[in-house]
Design goal:
The protein has 17 helices and 13 strands. The chain is of the alpha/beta class. A 7-stranded mixed β-sheet has the order 4-3-2-1-5-6-7, with helices on both faces. Strands 9-11-10-8-12-13 form a 6-stranded mixed β-sheet. The protein binds 1,4-dihydronicotinamide adenine dinucleotide (NAI) and ligand LTNE7NMQ. The site of ligand LTNE7NMQ has 11 residues, from helix 10. Belongs to the homoserine dehydrogenase family.
């Protein structure tokens, strides 16, 4: 038996021992809520939560943060939102590693990631808005990373499937990405894997939302925006500094539903049904299936959209929220390297965040 206790074991055996990692959690929704549950497991013993926030309230007091009903209580109790107070809570802690965990979809918060990194905090994120956003923001992030902070981004693509890490490793070894293709959305995978015309598309979408697969505004999924962001993240990891306007994006959101607020959109989901039923019937008549694919070809042309694929296409062999990433590289050039598995859902995404946080210590 080893005479040296791991940090996890040391903290577990002595709850007063200083944990290695102090963390602030931004966002206590579907993913943030699942992350809070993981914090109560032995695997997270080395992490001390020193602050948590939703969009309107936050908490920095230890007794409230330790409350298992924290997520519910934050809906009606807590201090007014203020990033500075959360960062001060991190500063006040003597942990060696200080991390801000972003489990929101908020673009404004994502735009602060670079500043937090430059100030010496690490950032772990499920929020894709910065790494998958405009090119100047991404470049600022790369510059901030040069100052030593680490950016845990596993949750941003494939909900933690080892895609980003694989691309980085291949690149590190001198391999070069040639093409990238697949299904990058868990919710759209769930929808098109099941949609057979026997029930309305809108009913499946409601279910996908209840299960926590969609973005807070499901139009981000249906518009192709979320898939485009993931394609940008992967392309940039592979060395292609693409701009968002270089990705051709097909939206499944009818014009009439684009400008309305989320509640109105959710109340009018049935307007999606007829156009998708027609597309499905056309594809079926030709023996094809519909899948929402992302593609980056060898000339750097990028497209995301609904594609009619033949019955033997690899994307027809997906189940549930499966994502599929087929990577052709200079060394994987006869058959692509394929990474496949569940690509959305609170538990797997929260686990990706936890893995990135633990990797900081
Ligand atoms: N649901 C999934 O399967 C996956 C989600 N993600 C990403 O995780 C993120 C969160 O998604 P969900 O949990 O489903 O969303 P959600 O809508 O359930 O939760 C979002 C949370 O962020 C909070 N929030 C918004 N603005 C904030 C601010 N300025 N400060 C503090 N908190 C703020 C909201 O109050 C809410 O608690 C999104 O960026 C999404 O793309 C990533 C991979 C998979
Ligand atoms: N809404 C996203 C969740 C993960 O990023 C998806 O459907 O893939």
């Amino acid at each position: 038996m080893s005479a040296v206790l791991t940090t996890e074991a040391a903290v577990a055996s002595n709850p007063l021992a200083s944990p290695a990692i102090a963390a602030v959690l931004l966002g206590t929704g579907v993913v943030g809520g699942a992350f809070l549950k993981l914090l109560n497991t032995p695997a997270a013993a080395s992490i001390r939560l020193v602050g948590a926030a939703n969009s309107r309230r936050q908490q920095t007091q230890a007794e409230h943060l330790a409350d298992r009903a924290l997520r519910e209580k934050l809906k009606s109790h807590g201090d007014v939102r203020n990033d500075a107070a959360l960062l001060a809570a991190l500063d006040a802690h003597d942990a060696a590693v200080k991390v801000v965990i972003d489990a929101t979809a908020c673009g404004t918060l994502a735009s602060r990631h670079s500043e937090w990194l430059a100030r010496g905090y690490h950032v772990v994120t499920a929020n894709k808005s910065l790494a998958g956003g405009d090119l100047p923001g991404w470049r600022t992030l790369q510059a901030a990373l040069a100052s030593g902070g680490r950016y845990g981004d596993s949750a941003t693509v494939g909900a933690g499937l080892p895609v980003i890490s694989t691309l980085r490793r291949l690149r590190h070894c001198g391999d070069a990405l040639l093409t990238l293709e697949g299904v990058f959305s868990g919710s759209l995978s769930y929808l098109f894997n099941q949609y057979d015309g026997s029930q309305p598309f809108s009913a499946l979408l409601r279910r996908a939302r209840e299960l926590g697969y969609t973005e807070p505004d499901p139009r981000c999924d249906l518009s192709g925006e979320d898939v485009a962001r993931k394609l940008l993240i992967l392309a940039r990891c592979a060395g292609f500094a693409l701009r968002p306007d270089e990705v051709e994006v097909e939206s499944l959101v009818p014009e009439s539903l684009r400008g309305v607020d989320v509640e109105t959109f959710l109340a009018r989901l049935e307007e999606l049904d007829e156009p998708l039923a027609a597309r499905f019937a056309e594809a079926k008549a030709r023996g094809g299936s519909l899948r929402f694919l992302a593609r980056l070809n060898q000339r750097g042309r990028a497209r995301v959209g609904l594609v009619e694929v033949p019955a033997n296409h690899p994307a027809t062999r997906l189940y549930g929220t499966d994502n599929q990433f087929a990577l052709s590289t200079t060394r994987y050039n006869t058959q692509p390297l394929v990474i496949q598995g569940p690509g959305a859902g609170p538990e797997v995404t929260a686990q990706a965040l936890l893995g990135d946080v633990l990797a900081l210590a």
